[in-house]
Amino acid sequence: MTSDDLPIGRRVARWRVRRQMTQQMLADRLRRSKSWVDKIERGARTLDRYSVIQELAHVLRVDPEVLLGQPQGTPASTPDGVDDIRAALARYDTPQAPPRTDELRRQVGHAWLTYQHAHYGQLLRVLPGLLDAAQGAGSAELLVQAYRITSSLLVKLGEADLGWLAADRAMSAAGDGPLLAATATISVGQALRAQDRDRLALAVLLPAANRVLPQSSDCGGQESGDRNARKILDHEGQGEHRGRAVGGTLLVQAALAAAGCGEHRRADELTDRAAGVAANLRGYDDTHRTSFGPAAVELARVLVVASRGDAVEAVRRHAIVVRREGWRRLSAEYRGAYLVDVARAYLQVGDVRGAARALVDADSVAPGEVRCRPLARTVIADVARAQPAPAGVARLATLVGLTR
């Protein structure tokens, strides 16, 4: 039996011995009886309150997840369905009779909607078949979209390396389509950021943004950039707003990558530039599923501000942006992911209550974001360590398996 297979009481006993403590010594530090400790270690009494597990972990000088048999920051197991997606990515043969393009387009659209509603378990079941169909259909656009959905989901589920592979496949499938390649670059940047490779992500994202957006450094650069952007848009028959939305999304991702590198001034400059792009957008069909617009830029500003340690300004901006109409128009996935990210940012600047509020809000907006993502589970564990744990977090800890 491995240490992860042990009952929690046995793990308590092992760590007590490692710390050279008797049952009486542990009981005294917990202000409980020796009999209570003995029953916990023998399994005669159940540890069903996370606050008690926290107390034990504090005295034994370990993380609560160690007592629970789940090291901090790692999921309890690979989510059901990830191995099927891995197998689909490993197949290079195409199906005998690929679906018609219109049917495949319908399937891809349904997969996007499933993702945007944060129904990740359902998407796990759908994607292997969708990848097989897209690989045999001969449509670069739909294949890129299938790979992008796959990459985004894998990043959510803590499989960033596999997500990067799917994003790289999207880049290859884009071929000579500049705007299609730009959409694939969004996924590449997200996968690199998920691996804490922010500098690499910035090096990928910013040139891609510059290729699809007008340059603004000087008049000559503006004219040249306009020509390049028009050439890309004309090449793929897309409207100007669609190309700008892709470029704006690349700028937002680049800003977040710059913040992750500690380049806060550059992050501010990139969000300012993205805000300019968003301000020039009008109503358009979001063909490339970017969710880009003024609200997306303002959410990025909150995270950039929090990353440099300005908790007061981050909280102020956050309170404003979530009351605006643009916030409600964003997909459940986008809002839930932002709230998990802002919870992590608030933790980094020591605002535990702000982090707790963001997590509870994320669960109400998009439960899948909180209950399926290893990142959210780690943030919940960090918030739950506070004494006393903020209201609502104990329930979330139970939902994601941090209590037994």
Keywords:
404 residues; mainly alpha; 434 Repressor (Amino-terminal Domain); 23 helices
Textual characterization of the structure:
The chain has helices at residues 8-18, 23-30, 34-42, 50-60, 64-68, 82-90, 101-116, 120-137, 140-156, 160-174, 178-194, 198-212, 219-236, 240-260, 264-279, 294-307, 311-321, 325-329, 332-348, 352-365, 367-371, 374-384, 393-399. By secondary structure, the chain is mostly helical. Residues 71-78, 217-227 and 229-239 have low confidence and may be disordered. It has two domains: 3-68, Orthogonal Bundle (434 Repressor (Amino-terminal Domain)); 82-332, Alpha Horseshoe (Serine Threonine Protein Phosphatase 5, Tetratricopeptide repeat). Helix 1 packs across helix 3 and helix 12 packs antiparallel against helix 14 (240-260).
